[in-house]
Amino acid sequence: MSFGFARLAAAPLLRLALGLAASMAVASASFAQGTPAKAKPNVVILATGGTIAGAGATAANSATYQAAKVPVEKLIAGVPELADVANVRGEQVFQIASESFTNEKLVQLGKRVSQLSKEPGVDGIVITHGTDTLEETAFFLNLVIRSDKPVVLVGSMRPGTAMSADGMLNLYNAVVVAGSADAKGKGVLVAMNDTIDSGRDVAKRVNVKTNAFSSQWGPLGMVVEGRTYWFRTLAKRHTTASEFDIDQIDKLPEVQIVYGAGNMAPSLYEAAAKAGAKAIIHAGTGNGSVANYAVDTLKALRAQGVHIIRSSRVGEGFVIRNSEQPDDKYDWVVAHDLNPQKAKILAALALTRTNDTKELQRIFWTY
Ligand code: DGL
User: Fold this and answer.
1) Fewer C-beta neighbours within 10 Å, C or N terminus of the chain?
2) Cβ of 97 less than 6 Å from ligand 1
3) In the prediction, which pLDDT does 324 show?
């Protein structure tokens, strides 16, 4: 079984339509003749695995498959149209399902992206990635890559062997965005399902559909038939305006998340601290609420030097400081609109620069 992207043979009607389209294209090309061809941008694809590199047993397996099987050369060969929009080359950085990312892998990937962004011959970078933790990697790179060159993360919800696989067009779109001059300076981007989202705002909100990713503050733009359309820019600091620099970071402090619900076990927070967490993200109910029988445990952990950061398990909105809990009095931090997994990324980076609560809170307001 070929692990390549499955392409259905064009049915007769489809072939006729494509034939007509081709003759029209020739006509428009002759009309456009004389327009100097623009040099194609140089785009590097860093492959890390995930479903976009996945393979299932049959074309009907859109959800049952093995992730991280197809090498980057095959991903590129499966979309010959990439050559129409960019000079593309690939590097296989990892070949893993993204739930298996670690801090060490984040730092390694970040350093390679930083290195490439400094090369004059590189105009843009695409990172193929599993969708499970794609939002965490995108936010991390948005904070630590000191370059305005487009860095675009892309994945897929179906393996390339499935009917209506989404990876081919997602990869094509990501390369188009990464090669677009108008994508420069917009921060790290995520191109999925024809949409361009900010790596800061986007989250995986549906775990079984191709429109899995969205941002509560809306996308930045769209990419359609090889063109980018922009409608907003990110309000928060990023990339060249960030105070974080991956070239100055070799290790990230441990930060862990404890998920809020009814009937909590306060010992989970103590276990996180025992496991080395320098900060605990409380993924609270509602507005980052803390069960009354857990407050003393968190206060005790703060007194031992562990930072407490209130986020929310609710997918939208933002945690308001001193609302559900007296954060000033307890010396706690609120994660603003960042979901728990993104708050974890920012907290780890913030702790590479400061241990001061007021500074941590400034960083959460800023990024
Ligand atoms: N194991 C998941 C991952 O690698 C598959 C999901 C996907 O890539 O869409 O993130």
Assistant:
1) N
2) yes
3) 93
pLDDT at 228 over 70: yes
Ligand 1 atom closest to Cα of 54?
Answer: 8
Position 216 in a domain: yes
Q: How far is the CA of 74 from the centre of ligand 1 (A)?
A: 18
For residue 139, give every residue at least 6 positions away whose Cβ sits within 8 Å of its Cβ, in sequence order, or none: 188, 199, 200, 342, 345, 346
- Same domain for 313 and 198, yes or no, is no
Asked whether residue 304 falls in the same domain as residue 188, the answer is no
Task: Assess whether the C-beta atom of 215 lies below 6 angstroms from ligand 1.
Answer: no
The span from the CA of 111 to the CA of 126, in Å, is 15
Which CATH number covers residue 108? 3.40.50.1170
pLDDT at 12: 53
The amino acid at 322: N
Q: At 152, which helix (H) or strand (E)? A: strand 151-154
Same structural domain for residues 62 and 174? yes
Torsions phi, psi for 56 (to 5 deg)? -110, 170
Check if 135 has its Cβ closer than 6 Å to any atom of ligand 1. no
What's the pLDDT band for 16 if we cut at 50, 70, 90?
Answer: low
State the catalytic residue, choosing from 48, 51, 137, 195: 51
Q: Given 207, 241, 275, which residue is the final one in a domain?
A: 241
Q: Are residues 198 and 337 in the same domain?
A: no
Ligand 1 pocket residue status of 98, Cβ below 6 Å: yes
Is pLDDT at 10 greater than 50 in this prediction?
no
User: What are 244-267's pLDDT values in tens digits?
Assistant: 999 999 999 999 999 999 999 999
- Identify whether 195 is a catalytic site residue: no
